[in-house]
Structure formats: structure tokens, C-alpha cells
Specification:
The protein is mainly β. The protein has strands at 70-74, 80-81, 84-91, 96-105, 114-119, 123-132, 139-149, 159-165. The chain contains no helices and 8 strands.
Amino acid sequence: MPATTATPPMAVAVPELLPTATSASASVQPVEVPSTPVPPTPTVTATPTDVPQPVADAPVPSAACPDPNVQISSPQPGAVVSGDVPIIGTADHEEFWYYKLERTEGTNLDGAFLYFEGQQTAVSNGPLGILDTSFMVDGVHTLRLTVVDIGAGTDLPTCAVVITVANQGS
């Protein structure tokens, strides 16, 4: 067998780094280091608001009854009603044929009205009929009294009264 010979490790020369001299004219100048930004301190700014004012009672709507012979005197405009409500007023005219009481939800006088009472007998400041609110939805409704003229079969100016039905809790 051949003999093994060891190879001696090789030496590697590592250069030595030495500081170099700087010229005397070079000088070190201080550099301003920016500071770390600090977020601004939060401040509370009051937002102006309206100063609360006392709430005045809502104006009571007036009855739209131009003819003194076609009037609803009760319930009054703006009344809050429930159950059976007597309708008091006047339905009279020299050419009286009949009167009719009607109602509608809301205040649209041009909307569809539902008949609920009427007679062929004139009434002067007395009971015209009864409004049963038990099947009506709560809210604003308009009552309308119409007198029909026998001569021409036409309606005289009507009387309309806005009320509020409030059956819940009664």
C-alpha cells in the first residue's frame, strides 16, 4: 500500500487595516439631527349647536267651513278622539235635500272620502251622527260635512275638520 502523506495547511496572508491620517484642514461639523415628530396634543373643540327653545303647542288647524249653514262644531279642529265620537253641527239650507258625513285618512281634501252618516232631515246646531273610530287607524283624519241642494242636486261648500284618532291605550 502506498504511504499517505499529509499536506501541511497553507498560510494565507490577511492584510492588516490601519487607520489613515486625515489632513489637519478637515474639521468635523456638528449635524443637526431632526427630532422624532411628536403628534399634536388632541384638543376638544365644542361644536356649536342650536340652543333648545321651548316647544310651543302646535297650532290647532282651523275648520274649513265657509258656509254658516254647513258647520261641524264638535269635535273641534285638532281634537284627539277615540271610540264613538258624536258629531255636532249644522246642516241646513233653504234648498236642503240631504247631508252626508264622510272621513278620510290624512288631510288631503281632494282624496277619497268614505261615507259614514247622513240624513234627509236638516239639523241646526245638533247631533249630525256618530263616528266609530274603533276600526280606524290611529293618526290624522279629516271629517267632511256636505249639504246637497235639492234644486240643482249639487253640493254646497263643504265643512272639513282635521282630528287625530288615538285608540291605542284607550
